[in-house]
Amino acid sequence: MGMGKDLYEQHTQAKEMFEQANELLGFRITDLMFEGQEQDLKQTRVTQPAIFLHSVILATTLEGFQPDMVAGHSLGEFSALVANGALCFEDGLDLVFKRALAMQKACESEPSTMAAIIGMEDSQVEQVCEEIDEIVVAANYNSRGQIVISGSVPGIDAAVEKLSDLGAKRALKLVVGGAFHSPLMEPARAELEQAIQAAPFSTPVCPVYQNVNALPSLDPGEIKRNLVAQLTAPVRWRQILEQMIADGATSFTEVGPGKVLQGLIKKADRNMETRSA
Fold first, then answer.
1. Most buried pick, 67, 108, 127, 265, via CB within 10 A?
2. Is 54 a catalytic residue?
3. CA–CA gap between residue 249 and residue 241 (Å, rounded)
4. How far is CA 212 from CA 62, 102, 192, 223, in A?
5. Which of 74, 79, 112, 150 is catalytic?
6. Tell me, which fold does domain 5-108+183-276 have in CATH?
7. pTM of the model as a whole
8. Residues 128-168: tens digit of each pLDDT
9. 74 is catalytic
10. Cα(188)–Cα(74) distance, rounded to whole angstroms?
11. Cβ neighbours of residue 125 under 8 Å, at least 6 residues apart?
């Protein structure tokens, strides 16, 4: 069964939201989510709104869903902002789709990629990136000893080789559309900035811990600025989890496809209670 199909078939409100999304996007994304081929789903213009829809619609079906704090990894930050009331569903979907189109355009203009580096200190990875005469930066701080780098294809190739030689347990190029969260996304950042600034944001009911600084915010203006910066800045996920735990988080619920984030939470605190929605 395809992504979100069970929600569509079992919940009236979910079905209405999926159909509303089809209308807002101008194509039947549900057909691609439920029955589409892998190559269809891998298109950035489909992948990003599909994940957003699954996460947000799933959250609306949860009984008594009242988070005390929220966070989302990269694209997930938009879902988190709908979950805490900073964005309405329609505006969130509109921004996610514009973000996806802008990022796909940036990816197509210059070949670029990402790589996962396992078993090295952040400072070592950062130093190697700085020494390479290409665009290569740390893009995702996922957990201690797990970092993703992003940049030009020659830059990533050189970094993978050098980090492997220096003793990385794994240095593996990823199958991705481009160099997300790097300076190569600057055209997308510039394109999306206008849309984010024009969108109506409300004061959320609980703080969102944002990717760019790993700090909580309740201020719509600050949230907007950090969302714009997110496209070219690294995702500080490990730092977000550590800050949320320091601020009193006692359990985490992952809302959306997969369980990857629960694994990263356990790496931050192996005794932390986690669950899937």
1. 265
2. no
3. 9
4. 28, 19, 16, 10
5. 74
6. Malonyl-Coenzyme A Acyl Carrier Protein; domain 2 (3.40.366)
7. 0.95
8. 999 999 999 999 999 999 999 999 999 999 999 999 999 99
9. yes
10. 14
11. 117, 138, 147, 149, 163
